[in-house]
Amino acid sequence: MSVKFIEYWNLQPNKEEAFAEYLTGEWIPGMNELGITILAIWNILVGAGPQFVCEGIAEDLQQIQEALRDERHFNLNEGLFDYVDQYFSRVLTTTGLLPTLIGEPHHPAVKLNQFWDPRPGMEAGLRAFLTEEFAPALEEMGLVVGGYWKTLVGPRPHQKLEGRAGSLEEALAVLHNTTFYELKGRLMDHVNHYDSQILNLKVVRVIGRAAVTYEYL
Predict the structure, then answer these.
(1) 23: which DSSP letter?
(2) CATH code at 73?
(3) Which of 5, 36, 132, 146 has its CA 20 to 30 A from that of 63?
(4) Contact 42, 202 (CB under 8 A)
(5) Are 111 and 41 in contact (CB under 8 A)?
(6) Domain-located, residue 38
(7) pLDDT tens digit string along 156-205?
(8) Between the CA atoms of 77, 78, 83 and 88, what dihedral angle is there, to the nearest 10 degrees?
(9) Do 89 and 114 reside in the same domain of the chain?
(10) Is 0.85 surpassed by the pTM of this model?
(11) How many of the other CB atoms lie within 10 Å of CB of 108?
(12) What is the DSSP letter of 133?
């Protein structure tokens, strides 16, 4: 079972250079050592929420719980909080309903994430609509569906559909497509608390022959 640990924060003013150095030099390597592999860090281009979204992956919920209880994690975040505020986190697991992309993205990359809660009693209809109509239509419009996740720990909305595009223009083209408007209207018959975000890759994981490094873009 794949489990994601997603962390959100805003960067404090005039601290980006020191923040980038701490993030790539200490915080990310420390998180990796604790068993939460940082795949990428994104910043929000369109949509509400904190500025940065950090995407980590672990084998299971127990591994995340053990990492968060470790004193090293406390120390890492004490350093992180010197640079960021409005921090919160979510733990998600894949539903298995749609294909899931786990590997690190390659630059350039943009995400279109959509969030919602199923309406009570509409879960079966939502699953059928997503698999038979909504996700295939997104793919036809040029968006690569990257997974359908549910929140185990964290605030609502509790479900997330991930999509990837090659550029901001490609993601916006999907949102402005008349087919998307029609399908979103039908989606709203099945869900509450709908929201969406477009995210741009900010920290990329680079796998080299000798080591894994992280580049702050």
Answers:
(1) I
(2) 3.30.70.100
(3) 146
(4) yes
(5) no
(6) yes
(7) 999 999 999 989 999 999 999 999 999 999 999 999 999 999 999 999 99
(8) 50
(9) no
(10) yes
(11) 13
(12) I
